[in-house]
Amino acid sequence: MSEALSFDICVIGAGSGGLSVAAGAAQLGARTALIEGGKMGGDCLNVGCVPSKSLIAAADAAATGRRGAAFGVDFPAPMVDWTRIRAHIDGVIAAIAPHDSVERFESLGVRVIRAWAKFVGPNTVEADGRRITAKRFVLAVGSSPAVPNIPGLDTVPYLTNETIFEAAGPMRHLLIVGGGPIGAELAQAHARLGIAVTVIEQGRLLSRDDPALVDVVREALQQDGVTLQEGRAVKRVARRGDDVALTLDGEEILGSHLLVAVGRRPNLDRLDLAAARIARSPRGILVDRRLRTSNRRIFAIGDCADLPGTGPLAFTHVAGYHAGIVIRNALFRLPARIDPSLVPRVTYTDPELAAVGLSMDEAKARFPGCKVFESLFRDNDRARAARATEGLIRVAAAANGGILGVAIVGRGAGELLAPWCLALRQGLKLSAMADLLLPYPTLGEASKRAAGQYYAARLFGAGTRRLVGALLRLP
User: Fold this and answer.
1) Less CB within 10 Å around the terminal CB: N or C of the chain?
2) What angle do CA 63, 67, 71 make, to 5 degrees?
3) For residue range 374-422, what is the model confidence (pLDDT) as tens digits?
4) Which intervals hold domain Pyridine nucleotide-disulphide oxidoreductase dimerisation (predicted)?
5) For residue 464, what are the contacts with CB-CB under 8 A and spacing of at least 6?
């Protein structure tokens, strides 16, 4: 006989979103179970955000010396020690891991079950010989690297974001298939650490982002030594001695290592969703804006959730956002809904590329009278002083000054996006940003300058000049 357990809420998946739901539910007094067959902390802690940003930080340290000459400070060429870089990455993961550990969650009152879960009914799962029922389930099972159907790929060793940090070392030539955020970030990081890198992208680099802003990132990657092959598809993969060979339209490119970075797929195979009467699509579990599945007692969050009509939202911060929505729905019975238009994203290249809200083209298409305003980093005094003038801010605004979307490329773009995220969340107009009193000199002034352009034509126009002229004639 299987052990029978019953809970108020059962969370499947101990990544960012699942951990947030479990911690919140337990601290609010709900009898909470958390089931995880893999590593606690999920993709972000173990093979995603944390190790990749740790590697990027190491690469930035290597690049700092190369930038010194522009300031009159010369450094010797960096000596890259991959053993110590690996230790740095492992150390960062280890420092964060206790926050996501079984011990911490058990101390909060969560029953943690280390096993893979499978539905056996609409409100029951099996895991490690236990039958678990709950009033509400939350599926937070995340995603894995997608593997493209390229002839010969299964005959060669290749890396994904889940394995490249284990293989971190003195690669001779890294080939990257995929020019999205993961491909771009890892390409630049490895190039800065002295490895030859070629990126092959069948479309264009960072295709979801504003082409004018992507141009800035593209130039930076090339300056760091990354070879870009855009608009070219890999036709075949083969072994050539110790090398991997990629065939592109008759040309063959050889490399010592191959990284596949062409997107993500939801981790749904083990769940038996049909047994729980849960509908799915190729992109994930179908949900409504309250993150409910077709089985209204079951929610799906994070990478595995598919809200029709939206693009991919596979970000750690989205999983955390989803967790808050589910807590309000499942425990407080409030009809909280997600708003995909508020989701920001950042590509952590140098310079960074960040955006929130509608793209410039989307805003123009959907809102008559929409105008786009720009502020260039080269016009910002702090950027000049730091010799970080490669960048700009673009803001799409409605005719009434409402903010529709913002895109930033440049040093610290992810940090500069924060006040724009707040403005969109609170429904503020450009006047809120234009009226800010900011310290000088800061990069934040570039945002204020972009917002101020909306009012500049009106402020310095003929009507205002006539008004001032009339007032000046008064005694």
Assistant:
1) C
2) 155
3) 999 999 999 999 999 999 999 999 999 999 999 999 999 999 999 999 9
4) 343-450
5) 458
